[in-house]
């Protein structure tokens, strides 16, 4: 969905504010389904009137004048994104018709939203450049000799290795695991963002910010960090055929990712923006005892930023083993059916299909 595709927006600047949902009998958050309690309070989104927890309604946005609410108002994730998309789309259309964009020419409520000097030139990543640079980094990493890696864990069906990265105090992590399930089933589960919380309990939300094409998108992810501020990331993610070093490999798919800046990936109060320097998950089909198996090999180099010392970050990698083991268990026990089509099944990959759809 492009920034101008607003048919799903629940925020209509030409209408009055919606009636608030009655909260007497509401027991769970509309967004994440968490149960409300004394510690997890109810909050109304001022834009749509529905009831959310604090995590799912962290934004403060100025609403249209017709809503008759002055000052920043609490909004949920979807309404926040729709307000952003509405703003960018309107400003682009005005810049095209008037030859330039000016806050003085925008509707009264637009200057209250995020407004760059030139909204028509929204700062979006150069997809071909981001993709090419990331692929080169991943090719170099996957070509590293085995003796450059140090084995840290080999348990619960997960092999975890680390290596030092040039000009970084943080190690890059490699995990390899075997899943007793077909390639199609494994990818169908991994490609469903709503299921990631099944093996990553600290993940508070994961949502698509903007679709680039059927195999690539911008994603926003928010993680809970005990004691410290939560972390979030805005990433470019794309599926490719084969493996990084062998695009023609049969029965193989890869998902690559890296942090990027995006106009819809706005900051959230009380949250530190982390950085995924590089991410890769390779899926290769195989057979064992006549049954379909899938080998997953993942690489990631992440900087949580903030005040966390690198040695603390590096020492916490053991937690990854438990998460991967839980993922294996979930994939093997799930009854999700085989998908009709796998990602990157066409002639093109995320490297070449760059038009927003």
UniProtKB/TrEMBL annotation:
<keyword id="KW-0479">Metal-binding</keyword>
<keyword id="KW-0863">Zinc-finger</keyword>
<keyword id="KW-0862">Zinc</keyword>
<dbReference type="Pfam" id="PF01852">
    <property type="entry name" value="START"/>
</dbReference>
<feature type="domain" description="START">
    <location>
        <begin position="120"/>
        <end position="317"/>
    </location>
</feature>
<protein>
    <recommendedName>
        <fullName>FYVE-type domain-containing protein</fullName>
    </recommendedName>
</protein>
<dbReference type="InterPro" id="IPR000306">
    <property type="entry name" value="Znf_FYVE"/>
</dbReference>
<feature type="domain" description="FYVE-type">
    <location>
        <begin position="23"/>
        <end position="84"/>
    </location>
</feature>
<dbReference type="GO" id="GO:0008289">
    <property type="term" value="F:lipid binding"/>
</dbReference>
<dbReference type="InterPro" id="IPR013083">
    <property type="entry name" value="Znf_RING/FYVE/PHD"/>
</dbReference>
<dbReference type="InterPro" id="IPR011011">
    <property type="entry name" value="Znf_FYVE_PHD"/>
</dbReference>
<feature type="region of interest" description="Disordered">
    <location>
        <begin position="333"/>
        <end position="357"/>
    </location>
</feature>
<dbReference type="InterPro" id="IPR017455">
    <property type="entry name" value="Znf_FYVE-rel"/>
</dbReference>
<dbReference type="GO" id="GO:0005737">
    <property type="term" value="C:cytoplasm"/>
</dbReference>
<dbReference type="InterPro" id="IPR023393">
    <property type="entry name" value="START-like_dom_sf"/>
</dbReference>
<dbReference type="InterPro" id="IPR051213">
    <property type="entry name" value="START_lipid_transfer"/>
</dbReference>
<dbReference type="GO" id="GO:0008270">
    <property type="term" value="F:zinc ion binding"/>
</dbReference>
<dbReference type="Pfam" id="PF01363">
    <property type="entry name" value="FYVE"/>
</dbReference>
<dbReference type="InterPro" id="IPR002913">
    <property type="entry name" value="START_lipid-bd_dom"/>
</dbReference>
